[in-house]
Amino acid sequence: MRNVYFILTCISVAAGAFFFTLPEYKYKPRWYKFHFSFIQEHLTKLKDELILYKQQNGKYPDNNEGFLALDKLKSGMQSCELNNRYYASYPYEMTFSGTEILSPWLIPYVYENRNGLKPAVFRDSPASDKYGISIKVDDGIFVYSPAAIVFNRYYKMLLYELYAVRLISAGLPIFFLILLMRHTPKRRLNKLPPKRPSLLKKLAGISIFLISMFAGTIPNQITCYVMIHFSRYKHPEMAAEYVSLLNKYRDNGVITEATYQKRLKIIRDLSK
């Protein structure tokens, strides 16, 4: 039985080493953080422009004006229509379409001014002060990215998956190793006690154990893992998130019907 436990231990070590060192779990968390860092830069820039607008005008834009008030900021941006709605030239920069300022996923950033409105209106609002997703400009003033909200959901799913895989990858070898160490052949009557493994056998066992661990990592060492930044494959889901937020703003009286229709047309054009 010891041989069976030893074989299972070596197999679980090889499998655990393979899954523990998967390139997806090594590089993808960094890939997500890279995106959040760019979104944070954009949010900070929008915050600075809104503060400057308040200093010059004595107030922040209302929810219908939104980023339309930031004409100076938009003058330094490229229209996404001029860039064919793709990112070959400016993959990480903000662009604009009509009245809206867009993230690199081509989903508008959202400006939220809670001042003068009932708190209950914003009860379900995702606006907060979370790195890479939302930023607080001032009391009652927020800017956030609906696209980053969706992106963050997938990031959390990846982390849950990563932790589960690594826990199992480390736990199984330990489990079989404990069984191996605890198992001792039973001593039969009128029989001599079993001989202990020789030093040579112990060294051979340790060597096989280490080789199993190394062998499990080999496939991942020769794998090429390519990631595309700000890919649009999640665009439909991100657009749906943005439209859902627009509907809530319209239904709660945060924006007018005219503003709602303008912004809805922009996101529909971007989703074609």
Explained architecture:
By secondary structure, the protein is mainly α. It folds into two domains: 2-28 and 161-185 and 195-221; 32-151 and 229-270, no CATH class. Helices cover 55% and strands 8% of the residues. The chain contains seven helices and six strands. The chain has helices at residues 2-20, 23-57, 71-75, 146-182, 199-221, 235-251, 257-270; strands at residues 78-79, 95-97, 100-102, 110-113, 134-138, 141-144. The strands form two sheets. Strands 1-2-3 form a three-stranded mixed beta sheet. Strands 4-6-5 form a three-stranded antiparallel beta sheet, with helices on one face. A hairpin with a 2-residue loop joins strand 5 (134-138) and strand 6 (141-144). Helix 1 packs antiparallel against helix 4 (146-182) and helix 2 (23-57) packs antiparallel against helix 4 (146-182). It is elongated, with a radius of gyration of 28 Å. Residues 82-90 have low confidence and may be disordered.
